[in-house]
Amino acid sequence: MKASKDFIHFVHNKGSNNMYCFYFKSLVDSEIIHRDILPYVSDEITSLEEIKANVPIEKIEITTDIKKIQNQLLTGSFLIKMSERSEEVVLITAELKQSREVSIPEVEFSVVGPKESFVESIDTNINLIRKRLPIPELRLDEFQVGKLSKTKVAIFSIEGITNKENLNTVIQRIQDLEIDTINDSSYIAQLISDNRNSPFPQIIDTERPDRLASVLAEGKVGIIVDGAPHALIAPTTLVEFFSAFEDYFLNWITASFFRLIRLFSVMFSIMVTPLYVAVLTYHYELIPKDLLGILVTSRREIPLPPILEAIFLELAIELLREAGARLPTKVGQTIGIVGGIVIGTASVEAGLTSNVLLIMVALAALASFTTPVYKMSNTIRLIRFPFLFMAHLWGLLGVAICFCFILGHLLRLTSLGRPFLEPLYPPRIQDLKDAFIRLPLSFQSKRPVELQTEDTMRFNSKKAKEKKEIDE
User: Pfam families, from UniProt (predicted)?
Assistant: First the structure.
């Protein structure tokens, strides 16, 4: 460590006593050193115990463990020892904490509801959760993951509600991780998922503290990673990926309508282009006579078969998405809008694609943006291509075969050992009240069956539905 230019060591003279001090100036807050540590180390002090008693800082430890000393120095501690050859030292926490302020959510933005989002500081994120759930039952387990990064990982649960099997599964999987660095919560999500080879995410990530606090009250497990502005939620189900948290801030009729629109949009985004290819390649008889004339006219001068025409447009859309995401914000928006208009118009005028397919691909791309969880929208973008190739090979039969493969995969998929397709499979009528539609909050008096919580009741449903008159 002495070879590092940011490692500082000096002798602190106080009268006749010399104290040897060591710290990393890049990790330690110099204001804490000069304000809270050095002024309290006087010439009357003759032992490390007196330093511990005098310095007004909570986290102070006396140790001779070399490994602990190294770890503490590398996490922002100030070291003092009474003599140069002494093995016993005192470690005083003086960590330099730098993080951005709590801001509004960028990915899960909502018009109504709280406007706070997680930041990269784990202490700030824990505070955001504690503030929303000020109860002694809120349990926090903390671990260090990563041989090199030593990343702090915090696991949230509520004693008396959270199923201990779910909690123990998460703890065991995180403790068993063998990896050198953890740079984001996405690493944890990939490493502890039940099926790491599935394109479908099995753990929800969220940047909203209110959403994490809400699902903790339901009985789920929350995971926060130091340095990551997103928390993880497990176990989860497929329908939860299409439920925006803003649904709970709206009237149940409006929220249910928007949720159904999202589900329809997902199916439309996946199926519309493969159905176009299948029908034009094999099933002309399914096209109504009035529509057939329009399709024949639009494709009269197109030299490419439907599959190449569709792949060309789909890849163009994906290129525009990637370019818009990687470029600076203002430039990315311009590329997305101008590029889409220019490429679409030019491809139709050049006779490479039909205007009908261009409209369908554009609508499919627009429909895929309705998915509230970004990782699931990426999955939807991906699985369109297998459907497209199967439609070219065997028409509607190929689409049906691909759908059966996807459905079979989803039936086998689990999240922390819980069925991913619940409440459809296994069928659980009670959990349908907050699946495809959201019934009024007064009807949701029980926690989800799939979580198998220790306390199944959220509140008294009879009292919630009562409406007392003023004179009562």
Answer: GerA
Q: How far apart are CA 71 and CA 77, in angstroms?
A: 9
Residue 214 and residue 204: Cα distance in Å, rounded?
14
For 158, the enclosing helix (H) or strand (E) is strand 151-158
Other residues' Cβ atoms within 10 Å of the Cβ of residue 457: 10
Tell me the residue length of the chain.
472
**Chain mean position to CA 332:** 23
| CA–CA distance, 123 with 130 (Å, rounded to integer) | 10
Identify the residue whose tokens are 């003092």.
80
Closest listed residue to residue 450, CA positions, set 247, 158, 240, 264: 240
CB atoms within 10 A of CB 126: 17
Indicate the pLDDT class of residue 366, thresholds 50, 70 and 90. Answer: confident
- Supply 464's token pair: 């919630």
Dist. CA 404–CA 407, nearest whole Å: 5
Q: Which residues pair with 24 in a beta bridge?
A: 7
Say if CB 75 and CB 152 are below 8 A apart: no
- Catalogue the E-assigned strands of 385-460: 414-415, 418-419
C-alpha neighbours within 13 Å on the C-beta side of residue 19: 26
CB atoms within 10 A of CB 423: 21
With CA atoms as reference, report the closest residue to 442 among 462, 428, 456: 462
DSSP per position, 59-70: -EEEE--HHHHH
Distances (CA, A) of 381 to 99, 153, 199, 291, 366: 34, 31, 11, 28, 11
Helix (H, G, I), strand (E, B) or coil at 315: helix
Percent of the chain with pLDDT over 70: 94
- How does residue 470 score in pLDDT terms, banded at 50, 70 and 90? low
CA distance 198 to 420: 12
How far is CA 97 from its chain centroid? 23
Q: Which two tokens stand for residue 7?
A: 């490692």
pTM of this prediction?
Answer: 0.87
Contact predicate 398/388, CB 8 Å: no
